């Protein structure tokens, strides 16, 4: 039996990556049971849900949850425990692994039971894959986002059990761990909600700029296009390091990995560490003076030329077609009629 | 005796990792076990560079307030990893520890064991704060710091984009899709730092001079394999169709807007 830790949002819905981790778990062919600290999401095609109950587990608490999971492993003896490879999932399973003295494979795309288990994990954000072996009495792993779609996890059990008529409601078993009160030291004590507005992570269109933009002010034209397209502005690490944009706009390995419908890369060369942040975009349009830039050669569409000439012309063309009067002054962001 | 809640002395350890600065395409060695680094430069990961910067800023502000502070950088790696230690010293760290292992890339358990060996080699040093990058650039195992913290009984929060000292310890901020989570942990503590916490400085010439001469302490690591073993690295298949060039310069605008219209975004 494999345990799958499911993170739930404040509103009780399953957290990001839940579909991927369940698909990879089912694809191993082992029976799957779920662990949660919160609400039990509807429609889980599993037999049993272990609900962890403790005052220390009412909000994200990596040490307390890691310790609780160690105790659950000792009580129910699963073959392994999986979680989504989110920041939280990786952190909690690392706490579990450290406390139990077990190895941990993070960011896996597929896992195959055996002696040892074999697995494939993502490296460098996805430009490399690592095939590895995991030798452990209990297998601990996190599952990379997109694993279900990567094809590696397409054993029949995965899709069959997930898509058939309503699964019978699982048994819910409460598990009350014994937790040292000192573990309260690493628990969320306060939250500041995100400001309203289009977020880079979920925007359908991202207009992104790199060194070619040349200055912080140079982003005005990207802001304008993003507003016209209902999108967000992104940037490369060069822009962040030059202080042109905040790191929350950075796309890439150490920024945000995004999968918009359209990614417009302006003056970005396409280094691997940037590429892994945008390679899952459905369509990529590169605007670059260099026809040989990797971003250009890997994009769906490209325009060769100076972004400071191309973008204003594109904005003007959009306005002309939508019948909006062309104004000589820069239009404040967000005013465009859309 | 200090009369404030501030300790007089602050010791910060930063653990960094030497990583190849790969370009637009990654070449692998013939045995498929590693990145072919023969034609590559090396760097430390951006998260770690930010961790060094944060440590140096903590030390600077502590000294400015009349205290003493020391920043130690530690790396587990081959002798060449001294380059990354010296870079951190040129940014303002005070001393470096090289925990020597024969390979560039070690599995997470021996990495943690080697960091602990490095700490044991200076048993009299008590660190108030241990900083790690939240995950390393290439391997991305995201666990060495947590393993070390756990072995030392220290609280650890990863993915941190804000560190502030207050009366009771540290206030840590971490970004999530829903907003910011705030943690308050007592000292000593361990933190996994994320890029964006600061913009790292470019080392000054004086820093570079100092770094060149700074003595590094070398300690043997503990490279015995853990439970996770790399069998092979490979590149995923990429089937991208040929790029469609829509034109050059401003004249391409109509063709671009045709595409935007086709995609339904205008
Ligand atoms: C471990 C590690 C992690 C990293 N993580 C990230 C990350 O998360 N995100 C990230 O972005 N980078 C990351 N990097 C940095 C990455 O390797 C590149 O250095 C960076 O992405 C380059 O940014 P750039 O494309 O803006 O700049 P450059 O590589 O300098 O490219 C600039 C491009 O702009 C074009 N250009 C110049 N002027 C114009 C103009 N007027 N009009 C049109 N085009 C123009 C040029 O032809 C060139 O292609 C990381 C690096 C390392 C080692």
Q: Any overview of this molecule?
A:
Chain A: The electron transfer flavoprotein serves as a specific electron acceptor for other dehydrogenases. It transfers the electrons to the main respiratory chain via ETF-ubiquinone oxidoreductase (ETF dehydrogenase). Chain A: Its cofactor is FAD. The complex is a heterodimer of chains A (338) and B (266). With 338 residues, chain A is α/β, with parallel strands linked by helices. Helices cover 26% and strands 24% of the residues of chain A. Chain A folds into two domains: 2-186, 3-Layer(aba) Sandwich (Rossmann fold); 205-322, Rossmann fold (3-Layer(aba) Sandwich). Chain A has helices spanning 18-27, 62-76, 87-100, 156-163, 220-228, 237-241, 272-278, 294-298, 307-322, and strands spanning 2-5, 32-36, 48-52, 80-84, 105-112, 117-123, 128-134, 139-143, 171-175, 188-193, 205-209, 232-235, 262-266, 283-288, 301-304. Chain A has a nine-stranded mixed beta sheet with strand order 7-6-5-8-4-1-2-3-9, sandwiched between helices. In chain A, strand 11 (205-209), helix 5 and strand 12 form a beta-alpha-beta unit. The model of chain A is unreliable at 154-162 and 331-338 (pLDDT under 50). Chain B has one domain (9-262): 3-Layer(aba) Sandwich (Rossmann fold). Helices cover 26% and strands 31% of the residues of chain B. Chain B contains six helices and 13 strands. In chain B, the strands form two sheets. Chain B has a nine-stranded mixed beta sheet with strand order 9-8-7-10-6-1-4-5-11. A two-stranded antiparallel sheet of chain B has the order 2-3. Chains A and B meet through helix 3, strand 5, strand 6, strand 7 and strand 10 of A and helix 3, helix 4, strand 7, strand 8 and strand 9 of B. Strand 15 (301-304) of chain A pairs parallel with strand 13 of chain B, so a sheet runs across the interface. Bound molecules: flavin-adenine dinucleotide. Flavin-adenine dinucleotide sits between chains A (210-212, 236-238, 250-255, 267-269, 271, 273-274, 277, 287-290, 293, 306-308) and B (19, 21, 43, 45-46, 137).
């Amino acid at each position: 039996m494999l345990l799958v830790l499911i993170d739930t949002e404040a509103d009780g819905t399953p957290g990001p990556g839940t579909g991927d981790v369940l698909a990879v778990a089912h694809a191993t062919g082992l029976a799957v049971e779920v662990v949660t600290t919160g609400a039990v999401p509807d429609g889980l095609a599993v037999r049993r849900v272990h609900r962890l109950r403790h005052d220390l587990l009412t909000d994200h608490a990596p040490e307390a949850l890691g310790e609780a999971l160690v105790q659950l492993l000792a009580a129910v003896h699963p073959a392994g425990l999986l979680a989504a490879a989110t920041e939280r999932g990786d952190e909690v399973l690392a706490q579990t692994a450290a406390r139990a003295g077990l190895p941990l494979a993070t960011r896996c795309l597929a896992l195959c039971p055996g002696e040892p288990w074999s697995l494939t994990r993502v490296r460098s954000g996805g430009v490399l894959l690592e095939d590895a072996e995991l030798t452990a009495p209990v297998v601990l792993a996190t599952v990379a986002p997109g694993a279900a779609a990567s094809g590696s996890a397409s054993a029949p059990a995965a899709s069959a059990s997930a898509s058939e008529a309503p699964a019978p409601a699982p048994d819910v078993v409460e598990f009350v761990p014994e937790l040292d009160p000192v573990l309260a030291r690493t628990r969320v004590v306060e939250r500041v909600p995100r400001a309203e507005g289009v977020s880079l992570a979920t925007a359908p269109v991202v207009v992104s700029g790199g060194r070619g933009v040349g200055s912080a002010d140079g982003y005005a034209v990207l802001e304008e296009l993003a507003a016209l397209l209902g999108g967000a502005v992104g940037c490369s690490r060069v822009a962040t390091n030059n202080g042109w944009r905040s790191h929350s706009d950075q796309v890439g390995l150490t920024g945000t990995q995004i999968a918009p419908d359209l990614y417009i890369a302006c003056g970005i060369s396409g280094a691997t560490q940037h590429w892994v942040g945008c390679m899952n975009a459905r369509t990529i349009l590169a605007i670059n003076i260099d026809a040989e830039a990797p971003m250009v050669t890997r994009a769906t569409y490209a325009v060769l030329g100076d972004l400071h000439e191309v973008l204003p012309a594109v904005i003007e063309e959009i306005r002309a077609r939508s019948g909006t009067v062309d104004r000589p002054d820069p239009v404040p962001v967000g005013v465009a009629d859309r | 005796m200090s009369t404030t809640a501030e300790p007089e002395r602050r010791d910060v350890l930063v653990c960094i990792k030497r990583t190849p600065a790969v370009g637009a395409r990654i070449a692998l060695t013939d045995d498929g076990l590693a990145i072919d680094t023969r034609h590559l430069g090396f760097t430390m990961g951006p998260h770690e560079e930010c961790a060094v910067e944060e440590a140096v800023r903590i030390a600077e502000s502590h000294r400015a307030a009349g205290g003493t502070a020391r920043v130690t950088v530690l790396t587990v790696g081959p002798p060449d990893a001294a380059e990354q230690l010296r870079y951190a010293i040129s940014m303002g760290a005070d001393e470096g520890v090289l925990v020597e292992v024969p390979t560039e890339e070690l599995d997470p358990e021996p990495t943690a064991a080697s960091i602990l060996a490095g700490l044991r080699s200076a048993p009299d040093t008590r660190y108030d704060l241990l900083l790690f990058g939240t995950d390393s650039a290439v391997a991305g195992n995201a666990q060495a710091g947590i393993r070390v913290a756990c072995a030392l009984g220290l609280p650890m929060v990863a993915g941190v984009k804000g560190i502030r000292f207050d009366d009771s310890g540290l206030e840590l901020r971490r970004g999530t899709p829903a907003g910011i989570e705030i943690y308050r942990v007592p000292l000593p503590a361990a933190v996994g730092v994320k890029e964006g916490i600061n913009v790292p400085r470019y080392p000054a010439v004086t820093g570079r001079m100092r770094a060149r001469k700074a003595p590094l302490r070398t300690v043997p690591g503990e490279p015995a394999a853990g439970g996770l073993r790399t069998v092979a690295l490979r590149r995923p298949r990429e089937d991208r169709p040929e790029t469609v060039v829509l034109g050059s310069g401003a004249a391409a605008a109509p063709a671009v807007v045709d595409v935007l219209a086709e995609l339904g975004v205008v």
